[in-house]
Each structure stands twice: as structure tokens, then as C-alpha cells.
Amino acid sequence: MEIYETTRILLATLGHPVFEPLITKQPVTTEASNEQQIFFCKASGAEGRGVFTQDGFVVLHGSSGRKESVTSIKGTTDDEYREKLIADQVVRVEGDRIIFMKDHLVGSPSRGAMALSGRTANGWQEWKTVDGRTADELIRQRSIGSKD
Prior knowledge:
Elements: H1 2-13, E1 39-41, E2 48-53, E3 56-59, E4 64-66, H2 77-87, E5 91-94, E6 97-100, E7 104-105, H3 109-117, H4 123-126, H5 135-145
């Protein structure tokens, strides 16, 4: 345990907190109540849930999508990324579906939407709150407005 704790502290100090759960890191909040906002992706057969953190966008455990990539992305880096998720056991395959086995940092909402839907996607528009507000409206536009 001592080696683990020392390694955890050193890596976190260097900006690589690999032993910390993704969701407990400081979440990006969208409401005055300071609650973490969950976004949903329901495009092209996807049934995803995700959140923004300081490190980027995280697709949550249990999110699912289609296994097959559309023809237009076959052989591209997007298709390779999806195959790597399977190979690294981040997602498991169940029939014609993929299911995220753990919370996974994808970096951007577009990467997350693509991973679930098997096609190119504008994640800023695809990920929405339960009341239909987009990630663009709640996260990106707010951060652009705050720079003024």
C-alpha cells in the first residue's frame, strides 16, 4: 500500500491523477445549484449518459450503442478508436450492441457520441439534458460568454 500511495501522490502532483475515479474529480456544473449535470445521447441507436469533468467528457458506465460502424468511418481513426475500446475491455459486445463497462474519459462530447453511435457526430448537439438543452447551450456557450 505504501508504494501505491507514493505512486498515486507523485502521479497526481505531475498532473496525472490516474488512481482517482473520473467522476469524483471536480465536475463541471451547469446550474446555480452546483449539481453535476448528466447529459444523454440517444442518436442512431445510442443510449448514452455522460458528464463533463475538468479533464474532459466522460461516458458513464452502462451507456450503450451500436457495435457496427457506418461505412463512411470504416478504416478511419474513429473506427480504430471504437475497436480499441473493445480490445481494451472498456466496452463489451452483446450481440449488435456495445456497453461501457466503466466510466470512460473520451475527452470531447463528439468523441463520446461517435463511440456510441458508430458514425461521425457533433457531440455538442447530440448530448442533451433530460429537458432537451444541448451541451453546446449549457457548456460551450457559457464558457464563451464568460470570457467577455
